[in-house]
Design brief:
The structure is a single chain. By secondary structure, this protein is of the alpha+beta class. The protein contains 16 helices and 18 strands. The chain is elongated and about 130 Å long. 31% of the residues are buried.
Length: 542
């Protein structure tokens, strides 16, 4: 029986059926016999040789199978150990190639979703496993080219509505394709001109329809955002008129007039509204104003406060805080706030009131914040002889850049071109998050994170001030909110929101909300609220 089983094993080995020979040998109890050992040695050599052939042909899985069988038969002999090491190395290399290939395929897919089909094809690995994705990218590239041709035809015929409809019908990745984006930009230029023409002629209905269609295909276009603010202010002006709040209606149109100056109907309407406000105030200051419960002689004051408070309530509810105390405090503070005169220095002693430089607020965990109270601040190069509110250490144009506050809005303007979000301009209504470029290396990020407050923040990057510890400037309209989240500045370790505001005698500080006394911020003296220290210093920027 033994000789018959060994004969079967030898026949399988000779015929190259090594897997069969291995199974027969493992099932033979007498394989420890001398003849069985000879058959085992022959099978081990055959398995090792075949494993090396598999490795030479990049078949790591088959090589691993033969190596495991050889190891079960021979143990950790040098020959088998070398084979196992070579198999492990090939498997590691294969895993690395598979991971790199998978990452390339994922990157190609992402680029295709962004509309970068050519880049996606270049990143896509070759091989049958990725042929389906390659065919899909090629199909979308053809669709994008066809859509660009159709948009071009719509532009040539002046049918902008058809062009916008084509863009809206495309998938997002097709809308981002370079050819389609070029056609969208070519189409937006005459549409913007038409919207401005309708706005200037008073056809707000038609201009708004064009604006809605254009925003649908270019929601991030800066000029459309600016025009959208114009129509929104016109709508708010109409609401104020319905409420007989003529002062606020005129203010809204005044801001529109700054974006589209010289518009005749806006000038005439503002004149009419000013006259209505004057007459309304005259009526309220007469005998009717003597009645119990009559509103004050300036009818817009309470309504303006209500609007401000409504925004404050929405904001502080959004960040998860009880709004009542904060809103009451901000309402009182806005009513009390007085502009700080340049010659005045915060402090109680009259001898301290001597202008020596600019004010910097140093906050634990945050750093130094430059405080700027003016409605119009200047930005320029420190290498020039002129004095600027923000003298940046960069080479810049001779014309200064001005950041101007108008109501709750901010405008950037200059006689020379500057960049907003890398788009050249000479005048721009700023939005939260806009990046303003000045000179070769100057970069200012505009932030207005608290809608209820008119204050904003300029974050300095690139070229900074001579005082390098100052990396941000606060444009103070009323107050600054310091809190763990949702304020002008976020500071860790702040248990309760803290408000720094302008007072009649300089700056003051207190916890936000009802309760708690306001404390005067005096020069070079620290105020500790909780674990956060606030220190007001006066320095010279140059």
């Amino acid at each position: 029986m033994l000789h018959l089983q060994l004969k079967r094993i030898q026949t399988a080995i000779t015929a190259g059926r090594l897997d069969e020979a291995f199974e027969l040998l493992m099932d033979t109890p007498q394989r420890e016999h001398r003849e069985g050992q000879r058959a085992t040695d022959v099978l081990i050599q055959k398995l090792v040789a075949r494993a090396h052939q598999h490795l030479d042909q990049q078949r790591s899985g088959d090589a691993r199978s033969d190596a495991d069988k050889a190891q079960r038969l021979a143990g950790r002999t040098d020959e088998v150990a070398n084979l196992v090491q070579r198999v492990a190395q090939m498997e590691s290399e294969q895993r690395s190639r598979d991971a790199a290939e998978q990452a390339s395929a994922q990157a190609a897919k992402i680029q295709a979703q962004l509309g970068h089909f050519t880049l996606g094809q270049n990143l896509l690995p070759t091989g049958p496993s990725h042929s389906r994705l390659a065919a899909e990218i090629e199909r979308k590239r053809a669709l994008a080219a066809a859509a660009a041709d159709r948009i071009e035809q719509a532009i040539a015929s002046g049918d902008w509505s058809a062009g916008i409809a084509i863009v809206k019908s495309l998938d997002p990745e097709l809308q981002h394709h370079r050819l389609v984006v070029m056609k969208i930009n070519a189409m937006l230029e005459p549409i913007r001109a038409q919207i401005i023409a309708d706005l200037e002629s008073g056809r707000l209905d038609r201009g708004n329809d064009w604006l809605v269609m254009a925003v649908a295909v270019a929601p991030t276009d800066a000029r459309l955002t600016e025009l959208r603010s114009c129509f929104s202010r016109c709508a708010r002006a109409c609401e104020f008129v319905d409420q007989a709040n003529y002062v606020e209606a005129e203010r809204e149109l005044a801001l529109v007039d700054q974006i589209v100056p010289g518009t005749r109907w806006i000038a005439e309407t503002r004149t009419t509204l000013a006259e209505l406000a004057r007459q309304s105030a005259g009526v309220r200051s007469g005998p009717l104003g003597l009645l119990d419960g009559a509103p004050p002689a300036t009818p817009s004051t309470e309504k303006v406060s209500d609007t401000f408070l409504g925004n404050a309530v929405k904001h502080f509810l959004a960040v998860g805080r009880e709004p009542s105390g904060v809103v009451a405090e901000m309402k009182n503070r806005r009513a009390r706030a007085l502009p700080l005169k340049p010659q005045e220095t915060p402090g109680k002693n009259a001898s301290q009131r001597c202008f020596l430089g600019v004010w910097v607020l140093r906050v634990d965990g945050l750093g130094a914040v430059l405080l700027l109270d003016a409605d119009r601040i200047s930005v320029g190069s420190s290498s020039r002889s002129q004095r600027y509110d923000l003298p940046l250490q960069t080479e810049g144009p001779s014309a200064a850049l001005f950041i101007r506050r108008a109501g709750d809005d901010y405008f950037a303007e200059s006689e020379a071109e500057f960049g907003v979000n890398d788009q050249p301009t000479k005048r721009r209504l700023l939005a939260n998050g806009d990046s303003i470029g000045f000179g070769r290396r100057g970069r200012l990020k505009f932030r207005k994170p608290v809608p209820a407050s008119g204050s904003a923040v300029l974050q300095l990057s690139g070229a900074g001030l001579a005082k390098r510890e100052i990396r941000c400037a606060a444009l103070m309209a009323d107050s600054l909110l310091f809190s763990p989240r949702g304020g002008h500045f976020s500071i860790s370790g702040c248990e309760r929101p803290i408000v720094v505001f302008r007072a009649a005698d300089g700056y003051a500080i207190k916890y936000a909300g009802s309760g708690g006394d306001a404390r005067q911020l005096e020069a070079d003296r620290s105020v500790l609220l909780g674990e956060t220290r606030f220190t007001l210093n006066q320095i010279k920027l140059s």
